[in-house]
Amino acid sequence: MKLVYFAWVRERVGRTDEEIELPEGIDTVAELVRWLRGRGEEYEYAFENEGIVRAAIDHVHVKPEARVAGAREIAFFPPMTGG
User: Which of 12, 34, 65, 73 could tie 2 with a disulfide, CB 3.0–4.6 Å?
Assistant: First the structure.
């Protein structure tokens, strides 16, 4: 599965993307974020405020409880504003 990071999430993680094997027992975006936070200080920093970072699965915006099974790509990005 490919993970993609945008804006300050990318800056904090220190990479634009990465390929991972989805760990057993990770079913939702929220569970994936908790797992990522355990991978190191940079991930802890990027995801320190749960609920702030948004996610998209295969280019569709999703909520934290969205299932990740079968996803090819999950993107993480900060909230957006428009005008």
Answer: 73
Handedness of CA 35, 39, 41, 43 (dihedral sign): negative
DSSP 21: P
Counting as low any pLDDT under 50, the low residues of the chain are none
Are 14 and 42 spatial neighbours (Cβ–Cβ below 8 Å)?
A: yes
* Spatial distance between the Cα atoms of 10 and 5, rounded to a whole number of angstroms: 5
User: DSSP letters along 57-79, please?
Assistant: ETTEEE-TT-B-TT-SEEEEE--
Number of independent structural domains in the chain: 1
Classify residue 50: in a domain, yes or no.
yes
